[in-house]
Amino acid sequence: MGPRVQLPPEIQLAQRLAGNEQVTRDRAVRKLRKYIVARTQRAEGGFTHDELLKVWKGLFYCMWMQDKPLLQEELGRTISQLVHAFQTTEAQHLFLQTFWQTMNREWPGIDRLRLDKFYMLMRMVLHEALKALQMRGWDERQTEQLLELLTTEILHPDSEAPNGVKSHFIEIFLEELTKVGAHELTADQNLRLIGPFCTIAAQTQDSLVLHNIAQGIFETIVEQAPLAIEELMNELEEEELSEEEEELSEEEAQEQDMLSREPPKGSVRRAQPPLDEQVGDDDDSSSTVLQFDYKAVADRLFEMASRQDTPPQNRKRLYKVIRKLQALAEGLFPDADIPEEAYQNPRGGRRVRMKKRLSGSQLQDKTGRRAKEALRSDSSPGSMRRRRRRRAGGDPPVPQERPGGHGRRGAPRRQRQPRAGAKAKVAGCQELKAKRKRTPEGQK
Length: 444
Hints:
mainly alpha; 70% helix; 0% strand
């Protein structure tokens, strides 16, 4: 028997990550993190593209096998934080690239019961990728590299990303960017970060991608404009208050120090807000939104939409967004009376109008059919006689219900009494018929 072939460590880890026992999978995840840190610390110890694809396949099925929502969330956080174990930016980007390639490849095989946890995994990986960018001070070069990677693997028309991956990525991008960098990103940096969406919205031939970008990126910016301006005004007020506090003289500061050593009851926490107020401040900070220069965003979109190679439907859709952004730049906010259903279903008005048109055409068809049936019914002899009477003069009598009749309509008519000769004639005919019937019997 020949010697046993030693498998590469990536394959061994992948096999353990996809094991049936949760203890085996958890231990494999911890070993993988240590292995990544030890290997990337060396100058020539980086991972190749194929090796990371094998690692991600094991991580994918590790998430596949995990049950219970809380454990799934914990595992997703652990997997997404593996990006920080890589020591170089290139290795981190390769790790992220192989993740999105793995999701694109395995997405058609995910059943609806496991869909939510992979949605959560994509959200967490994107969050940690933006967090890694934040740790490097939002460097322009690294930002461009990350955006190019995401555009190539997800948004570009030539990418292999399914519609589910594209739609979810577009939906969560601004949300995760807000969580990570809303307090420190400037309007110019935010415009740079949404640049790929402007380009794809002007070039794509996919109406679903165009709708998702317009609704998930640009319409979200328009809807959050009042909150962003309110937050900006609050920041300006805080800066003014801080400047006023700095202008206090040293004597007043010393007096306040003396008073603060033995404060009267109820005035202890003036310099520092109470705990419940601090919690309220944290809640306000969690609801912050991204700041945008609406005129700059409108100009960027107009530049992309006004090109000759932009499809007409894309240009029409983007011009609507541009008008809203230009109105915001002039200080005009969107109408607050518009119901939420109009934003949730932007095609609702069109569908209603189409339905009305269809119902009108169907009604016209029905009336035409009824008219034809009426003409056919009027071709009977009785209807011909009625039309002759109308031509002769006088309208026909209005039909009335007879008082003693059972459901019979019309004016009460006088019954005609047959003449005596007519009665005798009828009786003679009946006798003749009776004789004819008897004659064959007599012959027999």
